[in-house]
TrEMBL record:
<dbReference type="GO" id="GO:0009073">
    <property type="term" value="P:aromatic amino acid family biosynthetic process"/>
</dbReference>
<dbReference type="GO" id="GO:0009423">
    <property type="term" value="P:chorismate biosynthetic process"/>
</dbReference>
<dbReference type="GO" id="GO:0004764">
    <property type="term" value="F:shikimate 3-dehydrogenase (NADP+) activity"/>
</dbReference>
<dbReference type="InterPro" id="IPR022893">
    <property type="entry name" value="Shikimate_DH_fam"/>
</dbReference>
<dbReference type="GO" id="GO:0050661">
    <property type="term" value="F:NADP binding"/>
</dbReference>
<comment type="pathway">
    <text>Metabolic intermediate biosynthesis; chorismate biosynthesis; chorismate from D-erythrose 4-phosphate and phosphoenolpyruvate: step 4/7.</text>
</comment>
<dbReference type="InterPro" id="IPR013708">
    <property type="entry name" value="Shikimate_DH-bd_N"/>
</dbReference>
<keyword id="KW-0028">Amino-acid biosynthesis</keyword>
<feature type="domain" description="Shikimate dehydrogenase substrate binding N-terminal">
    <location>
        <begin position="13"/>
        <end position="94"/>
    </location>
</feature>
<dbReference type="GO" id="GO:0005829">
    <property type="term" value="C:cytosol"/>
</dbReference>
<dbReference type="InterPro" id="IPR036291">
    <property type="entry name" value="NAD(P)-bd_dom_sf"/>
</dbReference>
<dbReference type="InterPro" id="IPR046346">
    <property type="entry name" value="Aminoacid_DH-like_N_sf"/>
</dbReference>
<dbReference type="Pfam" id="PF08501">
    <property type="entry name" value="Shikimate_dh_N"/>
</dbReference>
<keyword id="KW-0057">Aromatic amino acid biosynthesis</keyword>
<protein>
    <submittedName>
        <fullName>Shikimate dehydrogenase</fullName>
    </submittedName>
</protein>
<keyword id="KW-0560">Oxidoreductase</keyword>
<dbReference type="GO" id="GO:0019632">
    <property type="term" value="P:shikimate metabolic process"/>
</dbReference>
């Protein structure tokens, strides 16, 4: 029940049709008796800076979840960013402090890595390929580097994005082998689709499935459906996979702490969630 005392958390992105966070947070808030609500708000890129500034003038807003395509833009709209967000080059969480200042943080990569590790995928010394060097791909690459992978290959349709991310990774992780320019999945222990491919009917697959080995772990960030065409194809080859919402469940405990709403486990959140596709 929304009241005049309800604390707002905006969920900012475009389009909003694939948003799953409200169906996880809001049942959890209700179960815990927390008077807060996550509200999806669709904002087109050209309107985002003005809309962001206006939104945070509201007196009852605690913060925002930020998703595609605004994670990189948000970096320049807050007063402070955490080291994690700096390395990723993007933030997906904004907290409004009591004094009105805004701090941006990044939990995408931590959520993805925690999910992969819980499924038994060894990352220490692994070779990984990340397709997509935007906000989510940058965050995942940064967290994989922190988890001790030996090599990261980066691919993006915009080569400059991959090169920029490669530069940030080399600065912070000089021992890490970083390459760019190829999306060929052959020979990797883990491959990650961090692009929007799979959100629209008829999208091409982000990888050549024929080149994926059965031993490769395949991770996805798209949440349009639970098993995207990529994941279905990977499963058919015998690959272990991680669906997009797994990353979300794993990062939400960190979000709850960031916003001052306590904490939870991924399993407890799953038990209350009301996700639909």
């Amino acid at each position: 029940m929304i009241t005049g005392k309800t604390t707002l958390v905006a969920h900012l992105g475009f389009p909003t049709e694939s948003f799953k966070a409200p169906m996880i947070y809001n049942p959890w808030f209700e179960k815990q008796g927390i008077d807060a609500v996550v509200v999806p708000m669709g904002v087109k890129p050209e309107d985002y800076p003005a809309a962001f500034a206006a939104l945070f003038r509201l007196t009852n807003i605690r913060g925002a979840l930020v998703t595609m395509p605004h994670k990189i833009t948000t970096m320049g709209l807050v007063d402070e960013v955490t080291p994690t967000a700096k390395i990723a080059g993007a933030c997906n969480a904004v907290l409004k402090r009591a004094d009105g200042t805004l701090v941006g943080d990044q939990f995408d990569g931590a959520g993805f890595v925690r999910g992969v590790l819980r499924k038994g995928c060894a990352l220490e010394g692994a070779r990984v390929l990340v397709s997509g060097s935007g906000g989510v791909g940058s965050a995942i690459a940064a967290s994989l580097a922190a988890a001790g992978v030996a090599e990261i290959a980066l691919f993006d349709a915009y080569a400059a994005s991959a090169e920029a991310l490669a530069g940030r990774l080399r600065t912070h992780y000089p021992a890490l082998a970083v390459s760019t320019g190829s999306s060929d999945p052959a020979g990797f222990d883990l491959i990650v689709n961090a692009t929007p491919l799979g959100m629209k009917e008829g999208d091409p697959l982000p990888f050549d499935v024929d080149r994926i080995a059965a031993s490769t772990f395949v991770g996805e960030v798209v949440m349009k459906s639970e098993y995207t065409p990529l994941l279905r194809a990977a499963r058919d080859k015998g690959c272990a996979v991680q669906v997009g919402t797994d990353m979300l469940f794993e990062m939400i405990p960190a979000y709850l702490e960031f916003f001052g709403f306590g904490t939870a486990t991924a399993d407890a959140l799953r038990a209350e969630a009301k996700i639909s596709y």
